[in-house]
């Protein structure tokens, strides 16, 4: 902690002034550009892009940084240069008219030259000095000064003069690029690297599996930190784009915002909210399990929320995807027309992995999407080994996460064994992994889906049946029965069976109810008759009681009568 | 002294043209001074009176450096007789200079 802060302080003290190149990505790699006011050597084999590289440095300097430049061409004629870069949109003629550029073509024909003694290269110095002074140039390119070695024979003089030239350029304070052809075992054929000690950049053009990749490496950069990797670069209609391979740290910001997956049922499996913004999502599964449909659903929803989405298709053409997705209720064409959705379809074999990566970088930088889909990443394996694909994806995820872009990959799993969780080995890199599988049973295949992992949220552990309808996607709870997880028609059959069971039970219940009712009626009638019987018995009994009472009363009256009559008879 | 003169005569009969020479130098540098004295000496010795020599200081006319395709200096250009030849260096190798200018075969 202490040490690092001390280092930082140290760095800021001696930080080397730099001259930004304006070439996409190179300034990141070099931590600001080429060393200001010093020579830089750019070497590489024929066709590696040295001339274009140096020319872009000059043109961008003139256009973007208002630094006029001198291009001294030892190989190509000015009109050739003008024509060569016209396709990149560089108007060298106009720049020359605007006094921002001077092209000087050096032509020496050995056949018409005789060396008759000691000489020096004062002519070159004066010529260059005049060109620099006439437009106030800050940047100079010598492309490639080594050609002098084939025109002039006295190597001793040439070497000392070239050394003097570089010193002189430094004194002039111009930022210089010297190009040099790569030699056998050396960076340049004539050892120019001996004289240019500040910054050396090596360009390579490598072909692997018939697929070419352009690579850039900073061999040396005195007095500055710089990326040391091989960085792929791309030459296209915008010039050169260099791609910083990996960010050095893992400290990109995170978001707590959520992004819907496009169908509520899947969101429900992830706390009902969906994916985190800026996370990476992998959808893997066997062929025909609906990976692209999930991707389309995701994109569709994002676009409906007015988010920009970039769809990189490696398998199908945009038209094909649009047509196919219309069948399940996603109108992607509409989003394309609204400018919210951009397709970029390319065959993986079109170019190397690195080139794909550079292309994606460029597209992302231009289009500024919030959502990126790669469908499918598995096809990339055709152009690189598994580890290369993996490293490419790491870099891509890195790049996108720094920008808080949510990325969704689809991957084709060739085997259905779940324990074999390779999927280009990206599963450990992604934040969420959704697996779509085929379950084959009872002569039919059904899709099932589950969330394998989802970092930072409580996700469902359930296997769901995944159905694609013409209205979109949905998940259905799979049927858990004594026979296990049932899907598709087995599930429906089981459900029917259950319904039948219920009906039968209901029916049985009704019958029992009626019987009880009948029994009750019988019993009740029996109770009624018993009651009547009881009443008649009671009546009978009451009658005897009354008779007894009456008799007793009459007897009493009779006795009193007797008593009374006896008294009167006395 | 007489031998080279004879050779010059032979040449003259073959191509009856004066030598038009331009010598590009840079100020009073060592090489330049040497080149000037060397060419003057050679011309006076081998083609006296049949040459014109223009000495140009590139420092004074810098734009010439580009138009005349100057790199290595000093540079002697023979514009005539045809073909054009370019000799670089301080012209101290008399043999090469004479051959280069076509004065001797």
TrEMBL record, chain A:
Keywords: Coiled coil, Hydrolase, Kinase, Phosphoprotein, Repeat, Transferase. InterPro entries: Circadian_clock_KaiC-rel (IPR051347), KaiC (IPR030665), KaiC-like_dom (IPR014774), KaiC_C (IPR047222), KaiC_dom (IPR010624), KaiC_N (IPR047221), P-loop_NTPase (IPR027417). Its EC number is 2.7.11.1. GO terms for molecular function: ATP binding; hydrolase activity; protein serine/threonine kinase activity. It comes from the Bacteria. CDD domains: KaiC-N, KaiC_C. Residues 17-256, 257-489 form the KaiC domain. The keyword Repeat applies. It is an enzyme of class 2 (transferase). Residues 513-547 form a coiled coil. This is non-specific serine/threonine protein kinase. It comes from Spirosoma profusum. The lineage of its organism: Bacteria, Pseudomonadati, Bacteroidota, Cytophagia, Cytophagales.
From TrEMBL, chain B:
SUPFAM superfamilies: Thioredoxin-like (SSF52833). Residues 22-103 form the KaiB domain. It comes from the Bacteria. InterPro entries: KaiB-like (IPR039022), KaiB_domain (IPR011649), Thioredoxin-like_sf (IPR036249). It holds the Pfam family KaiB. One of its GO terms (biological process) is rhythmic process. PANTHER family: CIRCADIAN CLOCK PROTEIN KAIB2, KAIB-LIKE PROTEIN 1. This is Circadian clock KaiB family protein. The lineage of its organism: Bacteria, Pseudomonadati, Bacteroidota, Cytophagia, Cytophagales.
